[in-house]
Each structure stands twice: as structure tokens, then as C-alpha cells.
Design a protein that fits this description.
The protein is mainly α and 66 residues long. 47% of the residues lie in helices and 6% in strands. Helix 1 runs antiparallel to helix 2.
Length: 66
Amino acid sequence: MPVLEWRETALADLLAIVDYISDDNPDATQRLKDDIEAKVAKLPEHPKRFRTGRVPGTREMLVRCS
């Protein structure tokens, strides 16, 4: 099974998003972070689960902040 590795830029982006949202709504921030982490954790088992990305060689997943 493939191993999931976060690129430094992707992890920095995630942390910046979490930091930005947490100023307004900490609960929504935690739900969003949990949703992203849960979906990402499934990628090694199902690497083609999400749609083909706009950038060649990537996949895109949708998450909602509620």
C-alpha cells in the first residue's frame, strides 16, 4: 500500500487555513480539520477516490466547513 506524505507546502496551507478560520469559528475549524484528515487518511487505500485535479498528476477532494 502506498504511504501518504504531505508536502511541506500542503501542510503549511492546511495550517494557515485552520489558523484563519479559527479566529472566527473554532468549532467549525475543528470539524473541517477532522473532515480533511479523515478523507486524507483513506487515500493510501483508495488513491483514485477523488476527481482528477486541475493540475496534472493531482487529485482534488471537496470538503465543507459547516
